[in-house]
Amino acid sequence: MKSIGIEKINIYGCSLFLKQEELAKARGKDPERVVNDYLINTRSLNPPYEDTVTMGANAARPIITEKDKKDIELLIAGTEGSVDFGKPISTNIHSALGLPNNIRNYETKHACYSGVAALDSAINWIAAGLNKGKKALIIATDFSRAHFGKDHEFVLGGTAAAVLVSEDPRIIEYEIDKKGVWTTDVYDTFRPSARHESGNNEVSLYSYIDALEGAYKHYLQNAGEPVDFDTYFDYNIYHMPFPGMSFQAHRILCNLSHPRKKSEIRESFDKKVLPSLRYAMRVGSTYGASNFVGLCGLLQSVDKINEGSRIGFFSYGSGAIGEFYSARVCKGAKTLINELDIDKKFDMRREVSVDEYEMIERTRESYIEKENFKPDFSILDSWYDKHYKGNGFLVLKEVKDFYRKYEWS
User: Fold this and answer.
1) pLDDT truncated to tens, each residue of the chain (409 aa)?
2) In terms of domains, do 166 and 228 share one?
3) Which of helix, strand or coil describes residue 282?
4) Are residues 246 and 137 located together in one domain of the fold?
5) Helix axes 245-257, 262-272, angle to 10 degrees
6) What is the pTM of this model?
7) Do 325 and 355 sit in the same domain of this protein?
8) 373 - beta bridge partners?
9) Is residue 12 domain-shared with residue 159, that is, in the same domain?
């Protein structure tokens, strides 16, 4: 069986951030409790001249070389925040990156599962031999709607990931014959229009748990060998609607293996899961990029991660689907992640006040389904001139007759 995995990966954590404790104070909540419950220190935010297209392209551009462009023949973008109900954002990203014309491209949608759905398609394409040595570029990109004053306002955020999948894995190699899935029909969280996002937090929590248990049990059936949860997986990465959910998920699988004390679960969590929260704690909700953000966080955080270490992944998408799968860490993976300087890029973001955050979200809302508009590049004390101009970020220049024009800063 051929090797298939991630050759390159990068995440884009947006250009602005809001401190969770400041939002808690503004909403009359206990800042310490809010931070501890959700395990979010800051949440990502973009100015109105960024969207899911720009985020995806800005994640991909730093890692895609001219040679890579020639080798890519499949481009899939996973998102629940597309800018059009017909035209896929994969076409916009294809154009922005200057990729060749002989590429199959499309968009996947299944809430927060969209990124792994795209990944699965790429892996299957390569495993079937249809790629003929070529590579796939996977983009997962999303950000939150505005939910001022609601409890789930504290679990919002956004980020994008770019993943180059090939037969030359250098980050992780997937165990493509080991996978478990679970599906049901439920309205937990959903977006019935371009303006609305609805759902029930309690239903979503229980659906997540059902999907986790169902997908993991299916994985055990398909593994082809005995699996002891404590020793089989060196690390675990869970879908993070908010980072704090990862502890609940790990507790479920720990007790499913065999019941134990909370202190024992905490010890296991701190060793096997907590390192993957490094960047999620800085961006908030990670949507379809969740597993990829967790992977980057894990590889950056663990001082010495051994070649061949097995990672158990869980991906969840409202509506609903769960998938549990696994991969092995490649030699030199940590070095490659270190070279991305992700922490440094996150440190370059601008902090916004709660008032500025609300202004940005209201401005963004005013642009939805608007036939003509030009984003205001002067807001936030001309943040565009300070951060974007001359630094090669993709931005939305204008919308005219619904045609969207993007350009590199």
Assistant:
1) 789 999 999 999 999 999 999 999 999 999 999 999 999 999 999 999 999 999 999 999 999 999 999 999 999 999 999 999 999 999 999 999 999 999 999 999 999 999 999 999 999 999 999 999 999 999 999 998 888 888 789 999 999 999 999 999 999 999 999 999 999 999 988 888 887 787 887 888 899 999 999 999 999 999 999 999 999 999 999 999 999 999 999 999 999 999 999 999 999 999 999 999 999 999 999 999 999 999 999 999 999 999 999 999 999 999 999 999 999 999 999 999 999 999 999 999 999 999 999 999 999 999 999 999 999 999 999 999 999 999 999 999 999 999 999 999 9
2) no
3) helix
4) no
5) 120
6) 0.97
7) no
8) 399
9) yes
Q: For residue 35, is it left (φ>0), alpha (ψ between -120 and 50) or beta?
A: alpha
Where in the sequence numbering do the catalytic residues fall? 80, 112, 239
Are 267 and 329 contained in the same domain? yes
Q: Total structural domains in the chain?
A: 2
Residue type, 83: V
315: amino acid identity, one letter: S
Instruction: Show the domain range for 144.
Output: 5-171+342-408
Residue 284 DSSP symbol: B
C-alpha dihedral (65, 66, 72, 75), degrees to nearest 10: 70
Q: Which residue has tokens 């419950």?
A: 37
CATH number at residue 369: 3.40.47.10
